[in-house]
């Protein structure tokens, strides 16, 4: 019976747990960005609202990618409980500062996961998380470039409107 249980999953309990913890982080990111989208919409920052709505969708896709991987390898993915999502934010710039902080935190999490996979000799999962690590390069880059707009354009006068209009043009070509 014990052997049968072991055969059921290709993931160790440790790796399954850290992947489930990351499912929760991605779900938290998704909910946070949706909250930011609503706040931006309320502030009349329509492009930023769309930007964050799209980010929220992407984070949910990340969550599902991890979720499906856990189940496909014989583990049990856990639908996470998400709490402490703010409804209010201090400032336009602050929202993007928090975005960059969140993305840097996510990068650190995936670095830790890769490290644990390496130590556990789980090279299949190690390989799986490389996609996320590459994705993080883009997400941090975009957040940093958007923050630069606040310095270059400034928020005075029509500045906020200009920043909102320009930030959707920030793209990452990976070169
Ligand atoms: Fe899924 Fe932006 O990390």
From TrEMBL:
Pfam families named in the record: Ferritin
Main location class: cytoplasm
Keyword Oxidoreductase: yes
Catalyzed chemical reaction(s): 4 Fe(2+) + O2 + 6 H2O = 4 iron(III) oxide-hydroxide + 12 H(+)
UniProt-listed PROSITE patterns: FERRITIN_LIKE
Domain of life: Bacteria
Location of this chain's protein in the cell: Cytoplasm
Family: Belongs to the ferritin family. Prokaryotic subfamily.
Function: Iron-storage protein.
Protein name (record): Ferritin
Species of origin: Sphingobacterium griseoflavum
Gene this protein is translated from: ftnA
